[in-house]
């Protein structure tokens, strides 16, 4: 069985979980935190989450997991049949993650926990976000799915990265960097999909459990 080690708080965990649910693949989730312990690094060389175990071994990196699922479970394809169209899906995912989500992630500790943030970093990230969102906007169609009329792996990424980036940029800059794109209608469509509903429900349950634990400690 496919095992996913990570946390419902991780958008990269949820990216893979969404693909698993959309494909109808049986899987097991194991709640795990990142670690630099030797035994952890033996299973996940990066020390990050999520990582994955399948028959015969394991691997890390969420995009590798999506590709594995597409190869091993083709009955519900989440990549187009055409080679160029498949490349365009992969292109969009890389731009969204490399030039938008990972850029905004530099502000996460400040947005979520109030960690110090240098003004120079804030300004630098704003410039990079402008460039990244412009690239993403040129690639995405939102008609109605991010790459057109068919739900793809790009949606598994966009559906989890867009909300996080929105929360971060709104908290830090007071504005949503996606506001000029039709993401509200897109996410409304996503919320009708049972797989996305399940991911959101599990995240809500995890948040409630964390809040209860925090109250108990107090």
Key terms:
8% strand, globular, 2 domains, 4 strands, Glutathione S-transferase Yfyf (Class Pi), Chain A, domain 2, Glutaredoxin
What does this structure look like?
It is a single chain. The protein is α+β, with helices and mostly antiparallel strands and 218 residues long. It folds into 2 domains: 2-72, 3-Layer(aba) Sandwich (Glutaredoxin); 83-213, Glutathione S-transferase Yfyf (Class Pi), Chain A, domain 2. The chain is 61% helix and 8% strand. The chain has 9 helices and 4 strands. The chain has helices at 11-23, 38-43, 62-72, 83-105, 108-113, 119-139, 153-173, 183-190, 194-217, and strands spanning 2-6, 27-31, 51-54, 57-60. It has a 4-stranded mixed β-sheet with strand order 2-1-3-4, covered by helices on one side. Helix 1 packs parallel to helix 3 (62-72) and helix 4 (83-105) packs antiparallel against helix 6. The longest helix is centred in the C-terminal third of the chain and has 24 residues, at 194-217. It is globular. It starts with a strand and ends with a helix. The relative contact order is 0.13.
């Amino acid at each position: 069985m496919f095992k996913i080690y990570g946390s419902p708080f991780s958008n990269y965990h949820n990216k893979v979980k969404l693909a698993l649910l959309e494909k109808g693949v049986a899987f097991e989730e194991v709640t795990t935190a990142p670690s630099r312990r030797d035994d952890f690094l033996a299973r996940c060389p990066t020390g990050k989450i999520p990582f994955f175990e399948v028959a015969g071994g394991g691997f890390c990196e969420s995009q590798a997991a999506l590709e594995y699922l597409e190869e091993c479970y083709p009955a519900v394809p989440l990549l187009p049949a055409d080679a160029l169209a498949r490349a365009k899906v992969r292109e969009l995912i890389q731009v969204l993650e490399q030039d938008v989500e990972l850029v905004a992630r530099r502000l996460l500790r400040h947005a979520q926990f109030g960690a110090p943030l240098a003004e120079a970093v804030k300004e630098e990230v704003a410039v990079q976000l402008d460039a990244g969102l412009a690239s993403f906007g040129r690639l995405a169609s939102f008609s109605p799915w991010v790459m057109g009329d068919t739900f793809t792996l790009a949606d598994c990424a966009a559906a989890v990265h867009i909300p996080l980036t929105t929360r971060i940029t709104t908290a830090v800059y007071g504005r949503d960097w996606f506001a000029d794109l039709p993401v509200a209608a897109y996410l409304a469509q996503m919320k009708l999909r049972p797989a996305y509903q399940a991911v959101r429900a599990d995240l809500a349950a995890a948040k409630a459990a964390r809040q209860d634990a925090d109250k108990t400690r107090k």
